[in-house]
Amino acid sequence: MSDYQASIPASAGFKRYVPDLPLVIWMVLLTLLLGLMGGLPAVDLIAGFNQGFGRALGEFALILLPSFTLAAALSRQNLGSDAAGRTAAMASPIAGAGMICPDTAYAALSPVAGRYKLDLAFGAYAGFKLLYPAGPLIVAAGLGIGTIQVEPVLLLAIGVGLTLPVWLVGVLWGRWMAGDGAVSQTEQSISSGNLFLSFAPFALMACLLLLGGIVGKTGIGVLDFLLMPKGALLAAALLSLLQVAPDQRRDCLDSAVRRTGSLLLVIGAASAFGSVLTGMVALDQIVPAGSGLLTLLALFALTILFKLAQGSSMATFAAIAPVAAPIVAVSGVNPIAAIFAICLGSFVAILPNDSYYWLVRRDALAEQEEGRAIWILSGGAILQAAIGMVLLLAGVMIWT
């Protein structure tokens, strides 16, 4: 990924009247302007900004630092083979779900993805949103829907059925808009032994996550941490770092710190903007309670509003639950359909106020204009959401 200061794209004429500022500065200024124009007292505005800015920074630091360490270590192993890229792309939906974060999955797998980076991006995004135990489990827990109402196996089966076509749509869109692979790469051979050793960190991470799902909490702090996604990711990063020559390890860590620091600033500003906006707009009054397909469409639209305001997918899942829960409870809508309507609404869209945008944009689309990068990522995510929602509504009509 290249390090640069992102700015809002502007035409030559527009630049005459509007300063060309980094996106972080724009977000901070717009957040303050929004609060002041909305009549928020200065104390409340600052408190809301502080709360939003620091809301998820600690969690993202635990995700991004080991992810970028893993990425830097893998980049020094010359894994440029087409087989490695295809493997990373094919594993992306499972990685997105298993790591409970598309950002982590993409950052971890992108160094070996080569010309399949957009395939990986849309796959990790779809897996996190639709595959159990990620999006469906998070939304179900937020809505208060327990295992008595919804069988986990059923959630997993429906999630797989939706993920495959939704991911395929994203892949086709990305290849059409950016060509067959947004990043050019010279094909090179790599032995199966080297490929196996290089993917060993991912195998370790998968084993730890699988063991965590089987064993659950053990009461031993260190072991419980390693069996969680962030702990498993840290273990994988340490293993990958050990595979690098000792004199290159500090460079890997320095690279991880630089890339994490710049992204945390963008994420903090975006989160602050979303916090102030959602604190001023009563979105729960927009969607009336109803039943059937109308309720599903209302939940889908409501989640879109939250996602556009929040940026972060995880923050969207956390914020939508208290608003959507009473609608689901009183409407009589199928709870499984409601869960996936919310999950699909959170696809819209991959915009600059989403940390995932910057991960993919700076890596897979570094040579693209800002506006075109937004169109490729957001257009693909919107198309994924639309196709998934059509399939969900068709399934509801057939089975009810």
Number of structurally distinct domains: 1
Q: Radius of gyration over alpha carbons?
A: 21 Å
Q: What is the first-to-last residue Cα distance?
A: 48 Å
Backbone structural class: mainly alpha
Beta fraction of the residues?
A: under 5%
Total number of β-strand segments? 0
Please write the string of helix (H) and strand (E) elements. HHHHHHHHHHHHHHHHHHH
Share of helical residues: over 70%
Q: What does the main sheet amount to?
A: none
Say what oligomer this is. single chain
Q: Which consecutive residue ranges, at least 5 long each, have pLDDT under 50?
A: 1-14, 181-193
Mean pLDDT: 78
Shape: globular
Count helical runs: 19
InterPro entries: Glcn_transporter (IPR003474)
Protein name: Gluconate:H+ symporter, GntP family
Organism: Cohaesibacter gelatinilyticus
GO cellular component, one term: plasma membrane
